[in-house]
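May I ask you to comment on the folded chain given beneath this request?
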Amino acid sequence: MQVKKFEAKTMKEALELVKKDLGPEAVILSARDNKRGFGLAGEGSVEITAAVSEVTLRKKHFTESKLLEKDKQRFQNSPAKQQKEMIEKVVQKQVEKTRPRPVTAQRYIDIEPAMQNQNYTHTANHSLEQNQSQISLRNIRQVMQTESPTEILTLKSEIQSLKSMLSQFQSMPQNIHESQFSTPELRSIYERLCDEQIHPLDAQSLVQKAQAGLPASRQRDRNMIEGWIARSIMDQSLISDSGNDKKIHVFWGPPGVGKTTTMVKLAAQWMKSYNKKIALVTMDTLKVGATDQLRICAQILNAPFAVLRSTTDWNEILRYLDSVDYIFVDTPGPAIQLRRDADYCQQILGTKKANHRHHLVLSATYPKQMLQDLINRADLFSCDDLIVTHLDECQHFGAIYSLMLEMALPLHSFGLGTKMPDDYEVATKERILDLIFHITKTNRNEFISNR
């Protein structure tokens, strides 16, 4: 399932973007007015979240690949009903083209000259494998229709053509995306991006942009292709600001992703770098030892500490910590998964205010099959940016890039390990590129090998 957000000045324009990108069968999950403004002029906008299945999206891309450029533009501008009919027509035509025609149940090699003028039965619905099985001469003598020697020779020719067609089909690339690339170097880099855990559609988009932007003479230059893709990755990467203009920072995330550790690391970094006073607050009274762990960290940092259990506690803390520069709030892990805990946290904190910054914390090793559910739930908490932890436990980092694009959330920072506060770094576009292409690791290995 592909889920994407679209923003435009009007609802009509937003729906056109959905239809153009995801196709006529996309499902609208949510729509809202975006009060923060659209573009540099700060005009109002409409934001739509839409979804479509992988199979449906592939059918749309396959249909577009079969059209000329002028026809593709007309196809994208046509009404949704006509687009759907066109997609079904093209896909059905391709299915019919590749479907083997029914042939007789008798292998042509088993037909003997003496039998050519006799009647025999053939079953038109048998598959090609069944047609290649041995049929006894007794079954051949059972007759329902007569065929001449000329028809038998024609049948032999058709069977031979089917064999040749099957052989060619098996040698062709079975991946629709890969067949769209003009050189082996482009296909190789596409496979490398997929191996790096970048979503296949994102990898396809990157390689196709390189193919369209590079002259034909450069499409076999691997270094040139990688350089083009690297620039595209940096151009599309979303990086958030530090958020140090907001006083209250709330950390959301599922259990076990390292919210508490990340919050303490960030607090220590800001106290050291900006010389600011920071208070640590927790709502996590569910996990055993969570309150004591954060209290110890607050003592080490010499920072105020409080536990939130109700709205009254929150109002008292805000008054008491009025002189503090920043308040970091740790939420319970199940809050982003269970409606009961989510309502509990939102009831305590109230509606999100202008001086709030909400961070979504996810692990680089989090199971992919559970990410989509978290993405849908994260909208409930109006998260402003994304913090990715456990980079030290991961070998492939392309999923971070795809996750950033899918959620349309800028990256704030990375957690690199368990050491506090050292294993923490601010996200940059260069670092995202470094993680995907393993530049730092490659350079280090070359340096060691040359010594």
Summary: Residues 178-236 form one domain. The chain has 18 helices and eleven strands.
